[in-house]
Amino acid sequence: MNFQAGEKLTLPVSRITDIGYMLGDEHEEVFMHKNETEEELFEGQEVDVFLYHDHSGRLAATAYVPNIGINELDWVVVTDVKPDLGVFVDIGVSKDVLIGRSDLPAHEEVWPEVGDELYCRLKRTSAGRLIGKLASTDNMKDISTAATPSMHNKNVSGRIYRTLYVGSYILTDERFLGFIHDSERQEEPRLGQRVTGRIIDVKENGEINVSLRPRKQEGQDEDAQVIYEYMESRGGAMPFWDKSHPEDIKNRFNLSKAAFKRAMGKLLKEGKVYQEEGWTYFKKGE
């Protein structure tokens, strides 16, 4: 047989060297460094190994079992990002595996960062090298479970497994499959990023729609703080009030007219500001 990277085999120790073991028989052997096993082996002993290319590009064996395989998917951690190549992930052996840039979003701004997690498997290239491949939508469906209507408005956390211009796809900790429309996020999350939101719709098939925007009260508090800090930066006055044009509000605060009015209403009710002839001012003592 011809050994290939990505295989999980049970091989006998054919020879022992100063730094490791030769595994196989007189027809074919593969080297395993002593650092790649926790036990001292003897000739003839059979050992379960995984085959991969080491840092020198040579086919080698390790007794450490990887987290993923050719047809085995799991979450793996991003260890490095190379804009010209892609991202490297830790599969549980001494050599990290590349997920190529062709498998990643077109916009590098939403590429994973170090520490993010991706659900993927291994693939053997035509040259016999191992690379990582992101899970398909069908793969995600295979591990998902259906949400029930009682989950509506509940908070959920999970990881982004696909990004598109129109929105992001999430698998929650409960294994619900969800979609986050671009209108329900203040910024586009990264592939592999962990996010927390709330369920705003449960579909008949058990999939969910998720919003990353804060609930109205939470959002009102945050928006009021943004407005208040802007006024502080201007000495306690700004040329905006309830009747300001929606586009002017959007350009300055990135808020809708409705959100702006709710936040202003909070500040007015708390007696922190007052409005006059198109301007908003701090009240005395503020």
TrEMBL record:
What does UniProt list as this organism's lineage? Bacteria, Bacillati, Bacillota, Bacilli, Bacillales
Hey, which family's this protein in?
Answer: Belongs to the CvfB family.
Task: List residues of the S1 motif domain.
Answer: 153-213
What is the name of the protein in this document? S1 motif domain-containing protein
An example molecular function term from Gene Ontology annotations: nucleic acid binding
Residues folding into a coiled coil are none
Q: Which Gene3D superfamilies match?
A: Nucleic acid-binding proteins (2.40.50.140), Winged helix-like DNA-binding domain superfamily/Winged helix DNA-binding domain (1.10.10.10)
List the source organism. Answer: Priestia taiwanensis
